Amino acid sequence: MDAFYASVEQRDAPELRGRPLAVGHGEARGVVAAASYEARAFGVKSAMPSVSAKRRCPELIFVPPRFEVYRAVSQQIHAIFARYTDLIQPLSLDEAYLDVTADARGLGTAWATAKAIRAAIAEETGLTASAGISYNKFLAKLASDQKKPNGQFAVTPEMGAEWVAGLPVERFHGVGPVTAAKMRRLGIERGVDLAAKSLAFLAEHFGSSADWYHGIARGIDHRPVESNRVRKSSGSETTFARDLIDPLEIEAAVAQQAEEVWNWCVSRGRYGRTVTVKAKYADFRQVTRSRSTPAPVRDRDQLLATARALIGTLYPLTLGLRLVGVTVSGFPAEDAVPSLFD
């Protein structure tokens, strides 16, 4: 979906259409959960502190998130998906992989199927979606960003390896900022550079990820669409626009992430025993702190307090944080249901 949370808010409040909008809380300790395309034009991004967002765009309008509405719209969208295939792997409320090989509606091509799905979404929800079409998940994921918003792009088998060759490594799913920086130090800036490295070289420098990088540099990804995948954890993390050292700013971000994780737990009726906070320092050093309880955490305030207590173990900070994240895991076996909307 295109700017999903923000687009829902603009759909439901016509006076907000065409205006820079952020979903989140605009107070000093707030964080942007999502930004409309009008706001993105000013450099406003999700996970950005509200103060920074307002500085970039003084006319920015903040609206509080309505997760129950976003979940309801997401159910509508996934119901549309189900008309075209049973092989659906949800990634989030607004994104999923679909295997349409069987061509259940007899439309002839994946391109035609994507157009039909996008048209149905627009007609039934009033929202726009973008699609990436390809012969594997890695390329489809990359292609889905190519023509945003409200477009679609296909990477065919004939063009796959050549298309990947020209992309910067930062675009690759599974290559984060730290890995991308390491690749650049090794002279790997684009897919063509990655493809030129031997598997032995990649294993020496990237360990168990070598096979993955060796494959995607050639447009190869054999992972199937897993419609019954069971999630073992739920997490949210934020990479800040600038390194943070003020505990109030850091805890505001942790609170926002804990809120997102809690909403996920409530929406699926799944509650875990272990809360983990991850922090990455300005020098890219990463630490985690975890706490487990005898029974699953079923109280929002308990989750928030635990996350704040865990991040508090890092104080006082002598180096700023560039990223923090909150994760809940340790779901009871009987809660391990595969559906996104159980």
Give a quick set of tags describing it.
single chain; 342 residues; alpha+beta; MutS, DNA mismatch repair protein, domain I; Alpha-Beta Plaits; Dna Ligase, domain 1; four-stranded antiparallel sheet; three-stranded mixed sheet; 11 strands; disordered C terminus
Describe this structure in words.
The protein is an alpha+beta fold and 342 residues long. Among the domains are: 4-63, MutS, DNA mismatch repair protein, domain I; 67-129, Reverse transcriptase/Diguanylate cyclase domain (Alpha-Beta Plaits); 233-335, DNA polymerase, Y-family, little finger domain (Dna Ligase, domain 1, 2-Layer Sandwich), CATH 3.30.1490. The protein contains 13 helices and eleven strands. The chain has helices at residues 4-12, 37-40, 50-56, 67-82, 110-125, 137-144, 160-165, 177-185, 191-195, 199-206, 210-216, 247-268, 300-312; strands at 21-24, 32-35, 61-63, 88-92, 95-98, 131-134, 152-155, 233-244, 274-281, 286-292, 321-329. The strands form four sheets. It has a four-stranded antiparallel beta sheet. Strands 2-1-3 form a three-stranded mixed beta sheet. The protein has a two-stranded antiparallel sheet with strand order 4-5. Strand 1 (21-24) and strand 2 form a beta hairpin. It starts with a helix and ends in a 13-residue tail after the last strand. Mean pLDDT is 91; it is low at 334-342.
How does the SSE layout of this entry go?
Elements (H helix, E strand, L loop, with lengths): L3 H9 L8 E4 L7 E4 L1 H4 L9 H7 L4 E3 L3 H16 L5 E5 L2 E4 L11 H16 L5 E4 L2 H8 L7 E4 L4 H6 L11 H9 L5 H5 L3 H8 L3 H7 L16 E12 L2 H22 L5 E8 L4 E7 L7 H13 L8 E9 L13
Parallel strand pairs: 1-3, 6-7
Antiparallel strand pairs: 1-2, 4-5, 8-11, 9-10, 9-11
